[in-house]
Amino acid sequence: MSEALQRISVAPPVLRERGQREVFCGLTGIVWLHRKIQDAFFLVVGSRTCAHLIQSAAGVMIFSEPRFGTAIIDERDLAGLADVNEELDREVTRLLDRRPDIKLLFLVGSCPSEVIKLDLHRAAERLSQRFMPNVRVLNYSGSGIETTFTQGEDACLAALVPEMAHTTERQLMVVGALADVVEDQFRSLFDAMGIGPVTFLPPRQSAELPAVGEETCYLLAQPFLTDTALALNQRGARRLAAPFPLGEEGTTGWLKAAAKEFGVSDEKFAQATAAGRRRARHAVGAQREQLENKRVFFFPDSQLEIPLARFLYRELGMELLEVGTPYLHQEHLDCELPALPEAVQLSEGQDVELQLDRCRELKPDIVVCGLGLANPLEADGITTKWSIELLFTPIQGYEQAGDCAELFCRPLRRRQVLRV
Question: Which tens digit of pLDDT belongs to each residue from 235-252?
Answer without folding.
Answer: 999 999 999 999 999 999
